[in-house]
């Protein structure tokens, strides 16, 4: 049996919530998948994966990019000669990078992304980044991070990428006025919505990290107030805190309640009067509430089971439970960052099982026994569970879709209402 281990107290007044810790077979994508949304976000960056043909096929398939398109990512293939030590991998990498930058002069930031194969042959991409950075500076900055799937989950690719950028951020002066930094890749439309709300409240300056241009890196220092937009940025948050940034405690901006509390954390840090805050957010809050009602009619009372996948599980479970009336059976997450999720955990019902890590066979047994109305899981589990009569939602769609903020609250709800409606239609 898996041990039930009580977690430490999360926050003043928080209950000691038991967490089921599992260590066994896992079903997750690797961190290379993060390139799919990061290459769209940082518009003058390029992601060069140093990996195998399998790595290339994974990214190409996940991105849905046709072979004649020219995206901002590629794979430097490690082949049999590299693995056998018959070729100098560093010389080969230098040749590939030189050819790439000659062909694509628009690249201003180049990421060398490690993979399982590059780690197996002990290719030092950190040293390669330093060497190539010195060669191509100042026209191109070269950084590196690991997207390997060994002991990680796929959203940690973004965490590793942003953490690698932190040392390059300009240092703010000790006497600089407080500034807000929103940390985590957001769709451009969501970023624009949040920026308008911050502007109307009078909060500023506001920087979003990662920026859309690598030349617009925000300053960081003791005056930086950091608001996390994603729950999987543990390494990035630690790196920013080491530079002097202060994290604002808040739930994540998913749903009407989460978005309001997230924005309110910033408003309080910048001494925005409550009446002004309410006046600014009231129209968007009301739109979100109205839009959620029709999905609540579909989802209220329905049971849901989360397999661990993206680390978004706990904030989304809070949204589904509190705003849509769904019944949570089990909420699995690959890693549980207790400090970052403290405001989320206290809002989950006492009856829900929270699991960290995965033993997929045991979790499948619990899921089958519970027979939930909908199962949130990875692609590898969805089809087998569908064949057994269970309704599923692909977890990766929750990462690829704009789901943050007021205007996207109903879109997030619809991602769960749609599979249930599909099952109802098929059964009719």
What's the main sheet like? Answer: 7 strands, mixed
Helix segment tally:
17
Secondary structure: helix percent? 40-55%
Q: Tell me the strand order in the biggest sheet.
A: 1-2-13-12-11-14-15
- Name the shape in a single word: globular
- What structural class results from the helix and strand content? alpha/beta
Rg, Å, rounded: 22 Å
**Hey, roughly how much beta strand do the residues contain?**
15-25%
Unreliable runs = 1-15
Number of strands: 15
How far is the first residue's CA from the last residue's CA?
41 Å
List the helices and strands and how they pair.
Layout: E1 4-6, E2 18-23, H1 35-41, E3 45-51, H2 53-63, E4 73-77, H3 80-83, H4 89-103, E5 109-114, H5 116-120, H6 125-136, E6 141-146, H7 156-165, E7 179-183, H8 188-201, E8 206-209, E9 224-228, H9 234-242, E10 246-247, H10 255-269, H11 274-299, E11 303-306, H12 313-324, E12 327-333, H13 342-345, E13 353-358, H14 360-370, E14 374-377, H15 379-387, E15 392-394, H16 397-400, H17 409-427
Parallel strand pairs: 2-13, 3-4, 3-5, 5-6, 7-8, 7-9, 9-10, 11-12, 11-14, 12-13, 14-15
Antiparallel strand pairs: 1-2
Helix pairs in contact: 7-9, 10-11, 10-12, 11-17
How would you characterize the overall build of this protein?
- By secondary structure, the protein is α/β, with parallel strands linked by helices.
- The chain contains 17 helices and 15 strands.
- The protein has helices spanning 35-41, 53-63, 80-83, 89-103, 116-120, 125-136, 156-165, 188-201, 234-242, 255-269, 274-299, 313-324, 342-345, 360-370, 379-387, 397-400, 409-427, and strands spanning 4-6, 18-23, 45-51, 73-77, 109-114, 141-146, 179-183, 206-209, 224-228, 246-247, 303-306, 327-333, 353-358, 374-377, 392-394.
């Amino acid at each position: 049996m898996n041990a039930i281990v009580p977690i430490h107290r999360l926050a003043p007044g928080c209950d000691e919530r038991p967490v089921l810790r599992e260590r066994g077979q896992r079903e997750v994508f690797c961190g290379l998948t993060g390139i799919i949304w990061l290459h769209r976000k940082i518009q003058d960056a390029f992601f060069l994966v140093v990996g195998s043909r399998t790595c290339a096929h994974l990214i190409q398939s996940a991105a849905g990019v046709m072979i004649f398109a020219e995206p901002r990512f590629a794979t430097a293939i490690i082949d049999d000669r590299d693995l056998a030590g018959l070729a100098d991998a560093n010389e080969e990498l230098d040749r590939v990078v030189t050819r790439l930058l000659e062909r694509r002069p628009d690249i201003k930031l180049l990421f060398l992304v490690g993979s399982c194969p590059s780690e197996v042959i002990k290719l030092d991409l950190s040293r390669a980044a330093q060497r190539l950075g010195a060669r191509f500076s100042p026209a191109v900055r070269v950084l590196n991070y690991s997207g390997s799937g060994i002991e990680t989950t796929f959203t940690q690719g973004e965490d590793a990428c942003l953490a690698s950028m932190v040392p390059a951020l300009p240092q703010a002066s000790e006497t600089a006025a407080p500034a807000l930094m929103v940390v985590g890749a957001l769709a451009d439309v969501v970023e624009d919505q949040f920026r308008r709300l911050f502007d109307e409240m009078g909060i500023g300056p506001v920087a979003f990290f990662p920026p859309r241009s690598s030349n617009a890196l925000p300053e960081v220092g003791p005056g930086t107030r950091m608001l996390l937009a994603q729950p999987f940025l543990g390494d990035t948050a630690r790196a920013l805190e080491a530079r002097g940034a202060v994290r604002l405690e808040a739930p994540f901006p998913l749903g009407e309640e989460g978005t309001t509390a997230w924005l309110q954390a910033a408003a309080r840090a910048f001494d925005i009067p409550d009446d002004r805050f309410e006046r600014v957010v009231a129209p968007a809050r009301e739109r979100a509430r109205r839009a959620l009602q029709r999905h609540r009619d579909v989802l209220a009372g329905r049971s849901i089971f989360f397999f661990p996948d993206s680390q978004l599980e706990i904030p989304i479970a809070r949204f589904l439970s509190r705003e849509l009336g769904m019944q949570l059976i089990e909420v699995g997450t690959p890693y549980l960052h207790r400090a970052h999720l403290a405001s989320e955990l206290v809002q989950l019902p006492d009856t829900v099982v929270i699991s960290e890590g995965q033993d997929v066979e045991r979790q499948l047994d619990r899921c089958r026994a519970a027979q939930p109305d909908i199962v949130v899981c990875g692609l590898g589990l969805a089809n087998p569970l569908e064949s057994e009569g269970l309704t599923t939602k692909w977890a990766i769609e929750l990462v690829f879709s704009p789901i943050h903020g007021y205007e996207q609250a109903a879109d997030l709800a619809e991602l769960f209402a749609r599979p249930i409606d599909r099952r109802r239609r098929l059964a009719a």
